[in-house]
Design brief:
The complex is a heterodimer of chains A (about 500) and B (about 350).
Chain A (H helix, E strand, L loop, with lengths): L2 H16 L3 H21 L2 H35 L1 H35 L6 H30 L4 E4 L4 E4 L2 H6 L1 H32 L7 H42 L1 H8 L14 E7 L6 E7 L2 H7 L9 H13 L13 H13 L8 H28 L10 H27 L4 E3 L3 E2 L10 H32 L22
Antiparallel strand pairs in A: 1-2, 3-4, 5-6
Helix pairs in contact in A: 1-3, 1-15, 2-3, 2-5, 2-7, 3-4, 3-8, 3-15, 4-5, 5-7, 7-8, 7-13, 7-14, 8-9, 8-13, 9-13, 13-14
Chain B lengths: L9 H34 L3 H11 L3 H18 L1 H10 L1 H21 L5 H31 L1 E5 L7 E3 L9 H25 L3 H32 L3 H22 L3 H23 L5 E2 L16 H28 L18
Parallel strand pairs in B: 1-3
Antiparallel strand pairs in B: 1-2
Helix pairs in contact in B: 1-2, 1-3, 1-6, 1-7, 1-10, 1-11, 3-4, 5-6, 6-7, 7-8, 7-10, 8-9, 9-10
Classes of the chains: A mainly alpha (about 500), B mainly alpha (about 350).
Chain lengths: ~500, ~350
């Protein structure tokens, strides 16, 4: 394997793994803040117990997100030094701002929240968890603005003297249409993940408590978990709808700025639609071994045109047509990715240089693009369905019955949205190939020239081993603390004497 | 300090200083976290004592660690050439640092989640060893910045520099001493913090450890700094900083012996600061690189971002660095009370 391939595998492994923890961190922080706010407003102890219970699960998850996130920031320079040098003038700023504005906020106030129950006034302590939730969202703003630049490099031009991309307009990064679509889509998907988790944990306990002769404490448990399960289900359904709507918006932007990614997502080899014909959405396409033509196709008419342009009769360019178009654009020194939208400034400015650099193949991995796109959608719709069924099962005073089917559904509502997130990211990153900065810098040109393939391979193996061990520890702790259930909680009191026992300590 | 081909702009100077400030924030704040974590298995004689130690840094360490991430991010944003060459050049050392940060980063939260002795011992050692690795490798790293890491243009590139020294060249005697000295300095600094933030047996043991570690830090630090000045010195100001740093170390040692742990902590903070200022003075303007084999030098002017990016980042830093300092100071103030085993609840609370 080439150093580029190994470095890509390392990025893929560490990033997909990191992103197992990110959606829950982003969204569960806010859901816990809502629970604590309910306790603050009503004084109802059910909400204090829920806050502490889900708060603990949140922290088990958060620790992993933090430690795997550091790898991400270092990795650009370690494995992709030419990329870092080439785009640092633009890409570095959101990363630095993420640390300065978001990481400081979330980690400092999380420390205050964990240890501050008996040290801070109630209101200030509540503010701490809200600031944590706000910090995680702010972090998403900056890192998604950075990623959106890689998909659609706006606000920059090429400087041939320094041979790098340079910023022309910072605000363009935050008004990048890709960012405006990706941010709400990613956030909504995070809420699907965290609410699915809240629902599943509560649902499992409700089934366990679905018995005659409950103690008074167990009755309180049922009441608290009923609220949590319904809350989770509603958030799941609403954020699911938001994910669909924002995903639709994102598809239209993608068609504008990365038409090849759209074609790959559909395994659409030849241009379809236009002239009164409709472009169909593929339910199943199996490509030939060399990936140049379809062998078997099953289609729904009109849908692709609607997805891409909001027009059932729109002409959607196919993979082979785009490849020919890009080849001739490259040779002419007028390279640009969009075919049906304004040309990109940085792509146009770099086109002459790109011609000397050369591009091997304009087509991303089609089966990966095609299937991850469908896995993402399917898992998301399944989770929304489970959310709706949950509300039905909990109607009036009913409780779910324990059993294998229920457990399977609850597992699906946890892992479905989680893996849908992974699939979505694999799609968006693999679908961008062969580019690291779409239409400008090929991924092959971006790797660190001074780093040997052996070093990258060895560290990739070691990351995988360490991450594997930590995954076992993390999942073990999660299951243990899920099973422990709601703590029997007394409201914290402020400490007075120096020998008073802390209400919480590690 | 060598003259530059091109005079650096004010913005470049400001950002070099800001990155130095971020590193100093990291070294001072995570310095005591690392020292405290390394001491968990040695100063804590029973489970409750070890929990006292963990709880002195429990609320703060994660926020302190962000200084490192911000230093890294700021280097990326302000000097992409520096970030690219440094991070790819120190590939394996940075991997070791990441492993150290990972294994210590999960320890504090996860040790508390299971009362079994074997479980807790495992995480205590992960916290201690992880902190040790990070301190050691950064010590070796900074010593190499002092020496100057040889760089040259990458093959076929007119702009990207690569480190040409090779992995084993990083372990010169001076660099190894730098690693040991940073570990000892953090142990001293951490023991002072621990003495300041605890009462009872843990306090007494931390104080006793600090008086011993202080002596080693003074002797080791003196050798390191004199060596640095003689071999890689940058003039009278450098010697002056060295003297001030040495005086701070001695003052800290005298303070802890006299039971003034607050002053002892202030003086290890100042010693760390002055040593860091010496190092960043030495790294100006070549950023810790040796450009003698580079057709184009890698320095503050060639590694830097555009004036637009630096201006935007300056605006953000001017507004947000004071805000961060304010709320971090408030967090430290909130958890100011020293703790003892009497404050630690018997069972690990199941709640957050």
């Amino acid at each position: 394997m080439s150093p580029e391939t190994i470095a890509r595998w390392q990025f893929g492994i560490t990033t997909v793994y990191h992103y197992f923890f990110v959606p829950v961190t982003i969204a569960l922080s806010l859901l816990v803040a809502v629970m604590q706010t309910k306790w603050y407003r009503t004084g109802d102890e059910r909400f204090l117990r829920l806050t502490k219970f889900y708060g603990k699960l949140f922290l088990i998850n958060f620790a992993m997100g933090v430690v795997t996130g550091i790898v991400q920031e270092f990795q650009f320079g370690m494995n992709w030094s030419e990329y870092s040098r080439f785009v640092g003038d633009i890409f570095g700023a959101p990363l630095a701002l993420e640390a300065l504005l978001a990481f400081f906020l979330e980690s400092t106030f999380l420390g205050l929240w964990i240890f501050g129950w008996d040290k801070l006034p109630k209101k200030l302590h509540l503010l701490a968890i809200w600031l944590v939730a706000f910090g995680t969202m702010l972090s998403a703003v900056f890192i998604l603005a950075a990623n959106s630049f890689m998909q659609n490099p706006v606000g920059a031009t090429y400087n041939p003297v320094t041979n790098r991309a340079e910023m022309t307009d910072f605000m363009a990064l935050l008004t990048n249409p890709v960012f405006l679509a990706t941010f709400p889509h990613t956030l909504a998907a995070a809420y699907m993940t965290a609410s699915g988790f809240v629902l599943a944990v509560a649902g499992w306990h409700l089934a366990r408590l679905n018995k005659a002769n409950r103690t008074e404490l167990e009755d309180n448990d049922v009441s608290a978990f009923r609220w949590a399960a319904k809350f989770g289900a509603w958030v799941l359904i609403i954020s699911g709808l938001a994910t669909v709507l924002t995903g639709d918006f994102q598809g239209k932007v993608m068609y504008q700025v990365q038409p090849m990614k759209m074609a790959a997502a559909e395994a659409l080899y030849e241009t379809a639609g236009g002239n009164g014909e409709s472009a169909p959405f593929s339910l199943l396409t199996i490509g030939s071994l060399d990936g140049s033509r379809p062998v078997f196709e099953l289609h729904v008419p009109f849908v692709l045109g609607i997805l891409a342009k909001g027009d059932p009769y729109a002409e959607i360019p196919g993979i082979n047509n785009l490849r020919d178009e890009y080849t001739s654009r490259l040779d002419a020194g007028e390279f640009n990715l969009p075919v049906d939208a304004e040309p990109n400034e940085l792509q146009a400015a770099y086109a002459q240089t790109l011609r000397t650099v050369g591009v091997d193949n304009f087509v991303p991995n089609i089966p990966v693009s095609y299937w991850t796109f469908r896995i993402m959608m399917t898992l998301g719709f399944i989770a929304m369905g489970i959310g709706a069924v949950t509300l039905w099962l909990l109607r009036k005073d009913r409780l779910p019955k324990p059993g294998a089917v229920l457990n399977l559904a609850l597992l699906a509502v946890v892992l479905g949205p989680l893996f849908a997130n992974s699939a979505g990211w694999i799609f968006t990153e693999m679908g961008r190939q062969p580019w690291i900065v779409a239409g400008v810098l090929p991924t092959a040109s971006a790797v660190s020239p001074g780093v040997g393939a052996g070093s990258v391979f060895a560290t990739m193996v070691l990351y995988t081993v360490i991450y594997g061990i930590l995954a076992v520890v993390e999942v073990g702790l999660m299951i243990k603390y899920v099973k422990l259930g709601l703590p029997a909680e007394v409201p914290p009191v402020e400490l007075k004497g120096e020998d008073d026992v802390l209400s919480f300590a590690y | 300090m060598l003259p530059l081909a091109v005079e650096p702009t004010t913005l470049q100077v400001v950002w070099y200083l800001l990155i130095a400030v971020l590193w100093i924030g990291y070294l001072v704040l995570e310095g005591f976290d690392y020292g405290v974590a390394m001491l968990i298995p040695f100063v804590g004689k029973n489970e409750k004592e070890r929990r006292v130690i963990v709880n002195t840094i429990g609320p703060l360490w994660d926020g302190n660690q962000v200084w490192l991430l911000t230093a890294g991010g700021a280097t990326f944003a302000a000097f992409p050439g520096w970030y690219a060459t440094l991070f790819s050049g120190l590939y394996l050392p940075l991997f070791l640092i990441l492993v150290g940060l990972i294994i210590r980063g999960v320890s504090f939260e996860y040790r508390a989640k299971n009362p079994e002795a074997a479980w807790r011992t495992t995480f205590d050692w992960m916290a201690a060893i992880g902190s040790f690795i990070v301190a050691l490798v950064f010590g070796v790293g900074f010593a190499n910045f002092i020496i100057g890491m040889p760089v040259a243009l990458a093959e076929g590139s007119q702009h990207l520099h690569v480190f040409t020294g090779g992995f084993w060249s990083l372990f010169s005697p001076f660099a190894l001493l730098g690693g040991v000295v940073l570990v000892v300095l953090f142990l001293f600094h951490g023991a002072n913090f621990l003495a300041l933030k605890t009462r009872g047996a843990v306090h007494d043991r931390a104080k006793a450890f600090s008086t011993k570690a202080g002596l080693v830090a003074i002797v080791g630090g003196a050798i390191y700094l004199v060596w640095a000045n003689l071999a890689y010195g940058w003039g009278l100001v450098g010697w002056l900083l060295t003297v001030v740093a040495a005086v701070c170390l001695i003052a800290s040692w005298l303070a802890i012996r006299g039971g003034r742990q607050g002053w002892a902590f202030v003086f290890t903070t100042l010693a760390t600061l002055f040593v860091a200022v010496w190092i960043f003075g030495r790294m100006w303007p070549n950023l810790g690189f040796d450009n003698s084999a580079a057709a184009v030098p890698l320095d503050v002017t060639t590694a830097s971002s555009t004036p637009l990016t630096l201006t935007i980042m300056t605006g953000a830093a001017v507004v947000f660095v004071p805000i961060v300092l304010a709320y971090q100071a408030w967090a430290i103030w909130t958890f100011r009370k020293p703790i003892s085993t009497k404050n630690i609840p018997d069972d690990v609370a199941v709640a957050a």
